[in-house]
């Protein structure tokens, strides 16, 4: 039986929930108004939620003017992020669990890491980093599975003022090498293998391959996690656990400026190579901790589980920095939702009495297809709030999540945000804002969304409207620059709509002022909640000797949200074949990683181009979507007949 979603329905929290919530409807309205009327006063107050070494006297100093974009928050304050996430809780929470680690294999016992233990392990790792010469401002690349050492590594970097850059363990050696080189990292921290779903990714082997393309001064710290055999290079590789055992159990933290970088995280843009998004210390931590507490209505004693990987920003803000700054108990899961069976998420919720559960629509859709019996087997009575992130959640998935996981009584928060925004931008606060399935609802405090006409760049003032989503003013969690390229930062986010931060998303605003994200309007696609630049996949494909040209677009995919659709023109004389299709898939996996593998490859003898040679992607998108009726004007094409051929041979016609 399929649950019938009602997309026009409004879901209100229960009176009991509202009574106990940090923020109710009245408080939201008052606080939001205050946050945009006088951001200095609002954030001066909420900036106090973290501990400062030197208190700030300045609050907001930001400029969105193209050519002069400059973003500073709390600029004369000093702090240490690691001390905020650990040391300041030691008086009241030393023996409270900071991190619950749930391993890939449920037969391996889970770990409960207290704040005291977190301080010791983080200190030991910080001392090892210092011993290999890592200093304040140096870059450290982290390429690890979802193991406690990933948390220690992040917090150890923050402790000594090093800037971490996590590379998701699903990225290939080439992608890893590019990131190590782009930020000129001194050290890479990796593990022997990353077990996931019973399979093992050879991280050390990947790192060995990557380091062939990097400076030979880069040191490699290795966590022997599975204990399987690995290749070892004596002068370069260091056994991290062993060094941590030998290191001192305490490391003092250093005083950092509010605007000193905390981390770099590479993400895909619409053009060129991945962009190194830079987040700094003070504003980011204020914003990550405040959103974690209020969006999920986190209370002391709750167990918070964000199922993301620390390789994505969601893991940075909502597994590590937000929850730990709040003294929360955060769950870190090494595995996948379907191993050893499709009930794993719910088994873990029951086992650790999870209070807030935060996942992506793609996971919900894939579990939905396997039937509700996997959910019903487990006791989910501890759940209070459910969250969704990464892509629009379709009403069917929302309804399934609500009915089977939330039993119709738990608020669902659909959080819209980006790597660039550091934390939630549009989201219901669960005790304050009624949900509508598929809408990210209203802005978080301090966020001023505007809807613009994509053609004229005029702001749509009317409530009910549609257009591109921009943000009119800065908020503390905003990225500050792109690593080493402030010009590209301005070009990418502030050039299109002058005076505004451009999200890259389209949206609709309904009569209640609720926002509905309609998806990216640029050449970025969203595959299973992972962001991918079509240009990146194209350049991987054309790097293959048999490929002359490639054009990549997204198309609707039942589980992944969007799939990767590649049109490939082969070199003269090369014949298409299934073997070649497999070869190209493998090639892209190797160049970027498994997440970039095309779902469909269509052989295209020609691509639709204008007379000036520009590929008309609009047409390619329509064909990939099986939407041939609305191809629009094709008369400007150099050779309109290529379109007929592409339609004729559209993959997986249904
Ligand atoms: C893009 C950002 C930081 C969140 C994880 C992804 C899409 C994100 C939603 C949502 C509709 C969403 C947007 C955005 N997106 N959350 N709740 N509803 N779309 O971060 O990799 O930086 O991707 O994800 O298109 O621009 P990211």
TrEMBL record:
Residues 28-85 form the Acetyl-coenzyme A synthetase N-terminal domain. Residues 536-614 form the AMP-binding enzyme C-terminal domain. One of its GO terms (cellular component) is cytosol. Coiled coil: none annotated. ATP binds at residues 390-392, 414-419, 505, 520, 531. Belongs to the ATP-dependent AMP-binding enzyme family. Its cofactor is Mg(2+). It holds the Pfam family AMP-binding_C. Catalyzes the conversion of acetate into acetyl-CoA (AcCoA), an essential intermediate at the junction of anabolic and catabolic pathways. AcsA undergoes a two-step reaction. In the first half reaction, AcsA combines acetate with ATP to form acetyl-adenylate (AcAMP) intermediate. In the second half reaction, it can then transfer the acetyl group from AcAMP to the sulfhydryl group of CoA, forming the product AcCoA. One of its GO terms (molecular function) is AMP binding. HAMAP family: Ac_CoA_synth (MF_01123). Residues 94-474 form the AMP-dependent synthetase/ligase domain. Its EC number is 6.2.1.1. CoA binds at residues 196-199, 314, 528, 589. Mg(2+) binds at residues 542, 544, 547. GO terms for biological process: acetyl-CoA biosynthetic process from acetate. The lineage of its organism: Bacteria, Pseudomonadati, Pseudomonadota, Alphaproteobacteria, Rhodobacterales. This is Acetyl-coenzyme A synthetase. InterPro entries: Ac_CoA_lig, ACAS_N, AMP-bd_C, AMP-bd_C_sf, AMP-binding_CS, AMP-dep_synth/lig_dom, ANL_N_sf. It catalyses: acetate + ATP + CoA = acetyl-CoA + AMP + diphosphate. Keywords: Acetylation, ATP-binding, Ligase, Magnesium, Metal-binding, Nucleotide-binding. Acetylated. Deacetylation by the SIR2-homolog deacetylase activates the enzyme. The modification N6-acetyllysine is found at residue 614.
């Amino acid at each position: 039986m399929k649950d019938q979603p009602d997309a026009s329905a409004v879901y209100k929290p229960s009176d009991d929930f509202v009574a106990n919530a940090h923020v109710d409807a009245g408080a939201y309205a008052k606080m939001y108004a205050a946050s945009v009327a006088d951001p200095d006063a609002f954030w001066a107050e909420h900036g106090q939620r973290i501990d400062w070494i030197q208190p700030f006297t300045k609050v907001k100093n930001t400029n969105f003017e193209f050519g002069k974009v400059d973003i500073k928050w709390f600029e004369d304050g000093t702090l240490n992020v690691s001390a905020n996430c650990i040391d300041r809780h030691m008086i009241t929470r030393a023996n409270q669990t900071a991190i619950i680690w749930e391993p890939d294999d449920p037969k391996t016992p889970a770990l409960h890491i207290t704040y005291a233990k977190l301080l010791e392990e983080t200190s030991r790792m910080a001392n090892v980093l210092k011993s290999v010469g890592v200093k304040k401002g140096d870059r450290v690349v982290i390429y690890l599975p979802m193991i406690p050492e990933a948390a220690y590594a992040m917090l150890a970097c923050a402790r000594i003022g090093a800037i971490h850059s996590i590379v998701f363990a699903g990225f290939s050696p080439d992608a890893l090498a590019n990131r190590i080189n782009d930020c000129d990292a001194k050290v890479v921290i990796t593990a022997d293998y990353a077990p996931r779903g019973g399979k093992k990714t050879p991280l050390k082997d990947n790192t060995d391959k990557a380091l062939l393309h990097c400076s030979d001064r880069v040191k490699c710290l290795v966590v022997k996690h599975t204990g399987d055999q690995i290749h070892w290079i004596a002068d370069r590789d260091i056994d991290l656990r062993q060094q941590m055992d030998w290191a001192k159990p305490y490391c003092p933290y250093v005083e950092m400026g509010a605007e000193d970088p905390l981390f770099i995280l590479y993400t895909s843009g619409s053009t060129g190579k991945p962009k190194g998004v830079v987040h700094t210390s003070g504003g980011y931590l204020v914003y990550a901790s405040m959103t974690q507490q209020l969006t999920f209505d986190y209370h002391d004693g709750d167990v918070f589980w964000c199922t993301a990987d620390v390789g994505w920003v969601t893991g940075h803000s909502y597994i590590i920095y937000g929850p730990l700054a709040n003294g929360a108990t955060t769950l870190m899961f090494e595995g996948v939702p379907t191993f050893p069976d499709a009930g794993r998420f719910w088994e873990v919720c029951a086992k650790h009495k999870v209070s807030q559960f935060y996942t992506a629509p793609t996971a919900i859709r894939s579990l939905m297809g396997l039937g509700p019996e996997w959910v019903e087997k487990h006791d989910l009575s501890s759940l209070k709030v459910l969250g969704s992130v990464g892509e629009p959640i379709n009403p069917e998935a929302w309804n399934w999540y609500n009915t089977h996981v939330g039993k119709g009584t738990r608020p669902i928060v659909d959080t819209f945000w980006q790597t660039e925004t550091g934390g939630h931008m549009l989201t219901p606060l669960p005790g304050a804002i009624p949900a509508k399935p598929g809408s990210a609802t209203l802005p978080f405090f301090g966020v001023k969304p505007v809807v613009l006409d994509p053609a004229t760049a005029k702001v749509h003032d009317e409530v009910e409207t549609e257009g591109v989503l921009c943000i009119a003013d800065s908020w503390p969690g905003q990225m500050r620059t792109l690593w080493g390229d402030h010009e590209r930062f301005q070009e990418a986010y502030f050039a299109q709509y002058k005076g505004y931060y451009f999200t890259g998303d389209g949206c609709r605003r309904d009569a209640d002022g609720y926002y509905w994200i309609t998806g990216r309007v640029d050449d970025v696609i969203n595959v299973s909640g992972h962001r991918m630049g079509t240009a990146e996949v194209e350049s991987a494909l054309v790097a293959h000797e048999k490929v002359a040209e490639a054009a990549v677009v997204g198309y609707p995919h039942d589980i992944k949200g969007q799939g990767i659709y590649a049109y490939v023109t082969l070199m003269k004389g090369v014949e298409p074949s299934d073997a070649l299709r497999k070869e190209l898939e493998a090639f892209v996996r190797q160049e970027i990683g498994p997440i970039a593998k095309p779902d469909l490859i269509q052989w295209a003898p020609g691509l639709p181009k204008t007379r000036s040679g520009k590929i008309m992607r609009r047409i390619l998108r329509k064909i990939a979507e099986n939407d041939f009726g609305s191809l629009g004007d094709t008369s400007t094409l150099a050779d309109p007949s290529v379109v007929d051929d592409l339609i004729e041979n559209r993959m997986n016609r249904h």
